[in-house]
């Protein structure tokens, strides 16, 4: 069966709009913590995969090596993360949450919990599960289409599910 390209395009724009609006609402909820979107994204990624290489973190966040370096400099100065040399590759640096970073992750989760419940209050559990399954299928297809480029960018299918 042929799919309507306009429906697919509208779906893509809708995903983008939902993601953008969610970030705006979450940013507002986290503003009292004095943490930026870039910082809470770093903390979120590290909370799920602590010890990522700086390069993989940059790729996952869609940042340049220079941008992630400056961001991590500021986060290290604030005491949220620490960088260590990779044991097997002296050129690579791994990024780890500090105790303060782990505490901030907990605080972020507490601040975002009510917002997440509000965002999803009009969506049934079944509809949410179906939407998640659909998005996961689309993501898997995109990872296949990206192929080696997804690997080079550091995309980890397990991490993002």
UniProtKB/TrEMBL annotation:
<dbReference type="InterPro" id="IPR036390">
    <property type="entry name" value="WH_DNA-bd_sf"/>
</dbReference>
<dbReference type="InterPro" id="IPR023187">
    <property type="entry name" value="Tscrpt_reg_MarR-type_CS"/>
</dbReference>
<dbReference type="Pfam" id="PF12802">
    <property type="entry name" value="MarR_2"/>
</dbReference>
<keyword id="KW-0804">Transcription</keyword>
<protein>
    <recommendedName>
        <fullName>HTH marR-type domain-containing protein</fullName>
    </recommendedName>
</protein>
<dbReference type="InterPro" id="IPR000835">
    <property type="entry name" value="HTH_MarR-typ"/>
</dbReference>
<dbReference type="InterPro" id="IPR036388">
    <property type="entry name" value="WH-like_DNA-bd_sf"/>
</dbReference>
<feature type="domain" description="HTH marR-type">
    <location>
        <begin position="1"/>
        <end position="144"/>
    </location>
</feature>
<keyword id="KW-0614">Plasmid</keyword>
<keyword id="KW-0805">Transcription regulation</keyword>
<dbReference type="GO" id="GO:0003677">
    <property type="term" value="F:DNA binding"/>
</dbReference>
<keyword id="KW-0238">DNA-binding</keyword>
<dbReference type="GO" id="GO:0003700">
    <property type="term" value="F:DNA-binding transcription factor activity"/>
</dbReference>
